[in-house]
Write a structure and sequence with these properties.
The chain is mainly alpha-helical. The protein is about 85% helix and about 0% strand. Keywords: Membrane, Transmembrane, Transmembrane helix.
């Protein structure tokens, strides 16, 4: 039996039992006889809360991504459902069993409780969306650093295979740039995304050009313009890091 199917069967089994117990408990209280006008709202609210709990359980079981920063927000959904269920029970006991308010007032009270739960759920949805965007931005930033380092590594490996001594300064410059990128802040600022992307593209182009070094041409002539490009990129990475510090 697969794990998702196993969770589905367990969740559904508990859900069906909860529905049966709820309906039976409502009938045992005598609400259908003594307060028939309240009956539909009582049962409907209880079943709605339990259905929400079932849907929440199914949703949490189906999520493929790790929680990370979104964990508290996802747990907030469950908290809202639990609070709504408690509120429904309190409304039933206080306004139906003890005070026996009119059917219209009773329905309105349940509607207010549901609206408040919906508002809280909306806040949780906003929080989840914001946390997911932050996680996606952090992942993209890490990919920027790894992409830069991967391109520089391929360039460095090619330079290691070039035996000409005139390529040594270029190799040293690439290593210095690699070190600077390695210790750069991977978590960027939204206003710096285009800058990061442009730097990555330039480093990738540089690595591609370095791969052509030694292809039957004068290595010294090829190394000099490449070294200048490495120096320019190093300055741009430094400027990027300084601007990022100011933005944060």
């Amino acid at each position: 039996m697969s794990q998702p199917r196993s969770y589905f069967r367990i969740d559904t089994f508990i859900y069906v039992l909860a529905l049966i117990v709820t309906v039976a408990a409502v009938f045992l209280t005598g609400l259908p006889v003594y307060r028939p006008g309240h009956f539909i709202f009582t049962v409907g609210s209880l079943l709605l809360a339990e259905t929400a709990a079932y849907g929440y359980s199914r949703y949490m079981s189906s999520i493929k991504r790790s929680f990370g920063k979104t964990g508290p927000s996802y747990l907030g959904y469950g908290t809202v459902i639990v609070l709504y269920f408690i509120a429904v029970l309190g409304i039933i006991v206080l306004f139906s069993i003890m005070l026996d308010v009119s059917t219209g007032s009773y329905a309105l009270i349940h509607l207010i409780a549901l609206a408040i739960a919906g508002i809280l759920g909306g806040f949780m949805a906003f929080s989840v969306k914001n946390a997911e965007e932050q996680e996606d931005e952090a992942a993209a930033s890490v990919q920027w650093v790894s992409g830069m380092l991967q391109s520089l590594l391929s360039a460095k490996l090619h330079l290691n295979a070039v035996s000409d001594a005139s390529a040594v300064p270029l190799k040293r410059s690439v290593e210095e740039l690699e070190e600077k990128v390695r210790y750069s802040d991977p978590v960027t600022h939204p206003s710096m995304r285009d800058t990061d992307q442009l730097l990555l593209q330039r480093v990738q182009l540089l690595a591609d050009d370095i791969q052509l070094l030694g292809g039957g041409l004068n290595v010294a002539e090829q190394s000099e313009p490449l070294a200048r490009r490495v120096g320019e990129l190093s300055n741009q990475v430094t400027l990027r890091n300084q601007q990022l510090i100011q933005l944060k």
